[in-house]
Amino acid sequence: MNRQLAALTLALAATVLGGCAASKSGSAYTREQTRQEMVVRTGVVESVREVQIEGTKSGVGTAAGAVAGGVGGSHVGGGKGQIVGAVVGAVVGGIAGSAIEEGVTRKTGVEITVRLDNGQLTAIVQEGDEVFRAGDRVRLLSGAGGTRVTH
What we know:
- By secondary structure, the chain is an alpha+beta fold.
- The protein has helices at 2-20, 60-73, 80-105, and strands at 39-53, 107-116, 121-127, 137-143, 146-150.
- The protein has 2 domains: 1-22 and 56-105, no CATH class; 36-54 and 108-151, CATH 2.40.50.
């Protein structure tokens, strides 16, 4: 029964973690960003480099891992050994759950450096779902949700 609970907890954690991964794509907008005016600037891409966008650290992974580890650890030994096993399992599970959450939600992105038409040099990081090359003419859209680069 406890193994089923641990498996269910891990499956629930994976589902929740998948839902926590908000998009940092230049093409994705939150509901709050719709119907909002954005400032548009234009320029030319100077350079593009691949970067890693770190994953979320919401605490959901830590909590789910601690529960699963505590349940699993409680099966170790008997009497006081079960208590020690549950505590150690919860700590180890929490650490592992936190690392799993961050790793599962980590994304590859691009840092796009743009020379604006006014001569200013600026750089934006976003998910790498659109291909940019040096020399591309682009638009920078800035508003409440930050700035994004589009063609």
